[in-house]
Amino acid sequence: MERLNARYAAYVLQAVEFQLRSIDQGIIDEIQTSSLFTRFFESSGDDSLLHLEMVRKLRSLMLQYPLIDSVYIVRVTDGKTLTSSTSTYLNEFGDAAFFMNNMRSEVNQNWTSLREFHELEAQKLKNVVSLFRRYPILSGEYGGVVINISEQNLRSFLMEAQQDTVSYTELYDAKGNQIFESDMNRHKEPPITELSSSYTGWKLLSGARSTEGGLMWWFSVGNRWVFSALLLIFAGGLLIFYASIRNYRPVRKISDTLRSFYMRTNLNPPDDPVNDHGIFEKSLDELVDISKKYWNQSNEVQQLSRRHFFREIVEGSRRIGHDEWNAAMHTYAMPGQLSFALVVNVEIDHYTDFQTQYNCRDQQLLKYVLATAHQEAAQKEPQLHLWQEWIAPMRITAIVRFNSLSAKENVLHVYKQLQSWAQEHLSFSVTIGLGEVVHEPGALVESYEQALEAARYKLVLGTGMLISYRDVPVGEKEELYNNFIQLRSAVDLYRLGKDHWENKLSELFDSLKVDWFSSEDMRSLLNYFIYYLEREMRKLPPQWYQEWNTAAYERLNQAADRAEHLDELLKEWITILQECRLCFADRLHTLQHYSVIRDVRAYLENHYSDADMSLIVLSDRFNINAKYLSQLFKEAFGEKFIDVLLKLRMEKAKELLRDTALAIQDIAIQVGYTNAISFSQAFKKLHGISPSYYRKSLTGMESSENNEVD
Fold first, then answer.
1. How far apart are the first and last CA of the chain?
2. ω before 136 within 30° of 0 (cis)?
3. pTM of the full structure
């Protein structure tokens, strides 16, 4: 028993180390080889597009390594700090003390013990273990990267390996803090195995769960005594039969020997000390129980090994050929040949709601029902072989094998049936993503990634769909920039208090559904909206920004993270932003001279095309000091008069570029510029591209105007 428990404990600890080492090595590879990291750390200034690329990179790392809860990077030259969802500076970041302590430390440790972490002061603290890596790796003169894994993620990973086991495990960090305990509410025998990780310094304890009647004593003594006792009991059973034929004397002798054995070992004797049949019955029952438990634990270790092998194949941490695949299939008593195969993901939609609606027992029961229906649907097609595993709490991943390409139609039929069955019998929907057919075991990782990507398109198509990677078109990269322009327009209109920001935001979401960008691009665009909105709201008075940050920022991020369809996300975002806007509208009415500044703003919207428009003109018009008028602009709109005027002119300019064929020179005059050169410079400063390029990106026409200025 001790040997089996030690093997089991070593397997669990190695699984944890493998995940942490994979993340560590992945981060080191990115630091040493990624040009994007080099550009960020060795640059300076507020390069929005570079920061957006970097945020997308951080989010891709979180998708690649599901254990990661959060990640951020810091550039020490100016304190610029990027997370997977926001951009700030180190002096405003909630984890600044941890980062600076590691930068100053001469010891470069691997993973920390449990610690408290949050990005912003308004956020709740959570327990995480962290990995800090400098850039460059040795000197760290430019900054560093911090990876955080939440205590909850570690527990979920370890709990997955603990289902229906006869052993328990406890994991402690280097400071002795308990990270995980599989049986918090059950009595346990003293630990049998204690292992320490040379990589993390963490300690793992493992032992047997307690049973009644002192039965687990058999697993706590040495193997010699266990097998001696088993042999003695077995011999006693044989002698019972012999004694019943010959005479009672040998039976009595055996009975006395067993009683002596129980007395020496302090095990509970039979209730009737005289009845020989009682002691024989007790001994045989215990022999059967021990055999059953030994078999269960051996079978469980094999199941865990099979699940681990499955994860290694589909996640790409282990590349294998046909020979190794066939050997593994023989070990797990499964068909060995792999001629054609594809990977399928069956994902429970709105998993957060699923967890809230059902308790743990009901969740396990519903997952079992779904997995059983999945297996039975595949068994109806004799040409198919299905190997399925729950490798994520919300997702069944399956390798579907078949011998000819014509059988792929049978695969589609199976999953159409499963989709219909789920809609009819389950109270939740499932989205099914299908990867492409492969011919090699080592190529299953590509099919798995394709199945994941296909399922992510439920953000566009909606939940409860069957989505094949082959049927997913991808939008052109050039079209993505048009959506950035729509995004900025919606943010500018919202912050300026205009009434058309909802329409702009709806147009943006409609274009995403039409253009079919990759899920990564769509997620990046949604995160850039939050980032750009947060940056613009910083221009408000500090107390206003703080209230907005508390009331809206975190809610917008949470809505984006859990959204599974664009229509749901749009509705929730508009609700959040409308609530905050009503709050700020009340504040605007309390400002001194609000009625004056409102009239000034209305006048400016009607006369922005006046080339002579300035604070002096407005001062004379409304009989108010120019300096004081500038201050009122800043308080009411969060930005200077010249910036408000510029955005009004550029919004009209974009409308004319989009809806008319006027020359650039004529448009410049209509929006208040005396020549096309100054207009083009202002347009490019605000939008990053020239007016002519903006028009081409919308219409695709080659302009023949000779007076366009880039």
1. 79
2. yes
3. 0.46
